[in-house]
Amino acid sequence: MTNLEDNFTKLQARINMARTKHAERTKNVRLLAVSKRHSADKIRQLYALGQMDFGENYLQEALAKQVELADLPLGWHFIGSIQKNKTRDIANHFDWVHSVDRSVLIERLADQRPPDRDPLNICLQVNIDNEASKSGFQVAELAAACELAARKPSLRLRGLMAIPSPAVDAEQRLASMQAMKRCWDNLIAQGSELDTLSMGMSADLEIAIQAGATMLRVGEALFGPREA
Ligand SMILES: *Cc1c(COP(=O)(O)O)cnc(C)c1O
Predict the structure, then answer these.
(1) What percent helix, strand, coil does the chain show, rounded to 5?
(2) Which atom from ligand 1 is nearest to the alpha carbon of 223?
């Protein structure tokens, strides 16, 4: 068994164990393999094991891998911070964007998504721990952002995404993720058709599952340490 295969098997066992433990809250949990700083070859190996969705943070790096992997029917998710001048490439070359952290990106991605393509799936990034250093919508801004996204036929608003502060302990991490879940539930109660709560990474995926995440973004636990 290769390292990657071993990691994949262990990760699936971790996810299944947490799902069993929190079965009352978890329905579907989708795995996004975060492949930043890892080769196209590793993505190809993981695809051969059944993984379909891959997350990338750096546009140029991602575009190069997409060319190498154009023969595979992969789902490409952009999860990195977005400069305004990169939105056209992102709207053209990805299936999902998790890191929509301000309204101008909703406008630009909607305008720049090619009309012949399926709508671009987006998640709104929420600054859940109110970190000054982190971008993202404040909770109070979300309802308006959802309404804006819902008016764009070239976008499909799927849900919310969070990167909790690395500074907090497990208890506070759980509280933040539970706050995300409540926020997501409230938006659904107000009429948004959301099906995705994107949170949980290598170190805290059990906590995310406990809080009700539907999509985990896992890098290191799958691919090992990132190349510099
Ligand atoms: C890198 C990254 C991940 C994956 O983190 P790991 O700790 O390697 O699992 C998830 N989400 C985002 C936004 C990232 O940038």
Answers:
(1) 45, 20, 40
(2) 8
Closest CA to 123 of 201, 180, 59, 69: 180
Tell me if residue 54 falls in helix, strand or coil. Answer: strand
Tens digits of residue pLDDT in 155-209: 999 999 999 898 889 999 999 999 999 999 999 999 999 999 999 999 999 999 9
Ligand 1 centroid vs 216 CA: distance in angstroms?
Answer: 9
CA distances from 1 to 8, 51, 124, 140, 204 (A): 11, 16, 38, 48, 26
Give me 64's structure tokens: 């190069």
How does 47-67 read in b/e, with b if 16+ C-beta sit within 10 Å?
Answer: beeebebbbbbebebbbebbe
Instruction: Please give the model's pTM, rounded to 2 decimal places.
Output: 0.97
- Contact residues of ligand 1, CB 6 A cut-off: 34, 36, 57, 79, 163, 201-203, 217-221
DSSP for 161-195 reads EE---TTS-HHHHHHHHHHHHHHHHHHHHTT----
The first and second tokens of residue 84, run together, are: 């305004």
- For residue 95, give every residue at least 6 positions away whose Cβ sits within 8 Å of its Cβ, in sequence order, or none: 75, 76, 77, 118, 120, 121
